[in-house]
Amino acid sequence: MSSVSISGSGEDGPLAWSPRTGRWQTPAPAPGEPRYAAVDSWLVEDGRVRGLARHHARFAAAVAASAALPTGAAFPGDADVQRFLAASTARIPGAGRWFPRVELTTDGELRLRVRPAPAPQPEVVVQVAPLFDRRRLPRIKGPDLDRQLAWRAQAEAAEAGEALLTGPDGNVTEGIWTTPVWWDGDVLCALPRDAPVLDSVTRALLLGLAREHGVEVGRDTPSVARLRDCETWLLSALHGLRLVTGWLLVPGREPEPAPFVPGRAETWRARLEALATPTR
């Protein structure tokens, strides 16, 4: 029987949740940092979240996909995952900014980490030199976590807030932790529906808002050069909508200014943030 553990939520130590008893308890210590088959995370501000049901559904689907792989591990079934998600939601504080992460380890254990959220970052400078996308399972968040952490360290060392990943054709697949959208005139563009990338909750919410406001949505796979010519936003659950204000060509030098329409990002950010609803 798989177990569920929780850490970082104000208790003296991690807690475990048993699917068998439905109770939280102190887990047995385990050596080393676990590897992950699936993870998901979202921003909670004073008990309100954007797209929580979508995040839960994406994590449950990732667990099911992981269970179908020939790993030999005994992964939890959907009923246990749903009880875990409900129990985890109840443990997230109702005040303050939090960035909880639900996890499935490669040995079949479900965990929750309740982490303080960093300050919001409405703008970002992006490294121009892209990174080749070497993720093994780009549609699932978790298996490539170590690789993404290393990429983030590279971008930070170059004094950039994010870097883009590219495929064999040189076109952009995603950011390290983000998905790009960009404006082509009055058309809001995003990656193709069948792109081999994570099913971004924030992108789905934003494109839904675009349709509600009568904005045409285009689909394309851009090059980095194309994004440098457009107003570009990077989307994530943590920071929501970040406007790309600069492109870093050479570490240590001033970034190249990015084009944008004044006030547009702020308007759409407010619309996106207004979608947050209470968790309970």
TrEMBL record:
Where is the region Disordered?
1-32
Q: Which GO terms describe its molecular function?
A: transaminase activity
Domain of life, per UniProt, equals Bacteria
Which Gene3D superfamilies does its entry note? Answer: D-amino Acid Aminotransferase, subunit A, domain 2
Pfam families assigned to the protein according to its UniProt record, in alphabetical order: Aminotran_4
Q: Which UniProt keywords apply?
A: Aminotransferase, Transferase
Q: What is this protein called?
A: Aminotransferase class IV
- Tell me the organism: Paraconexibacter antarcticus
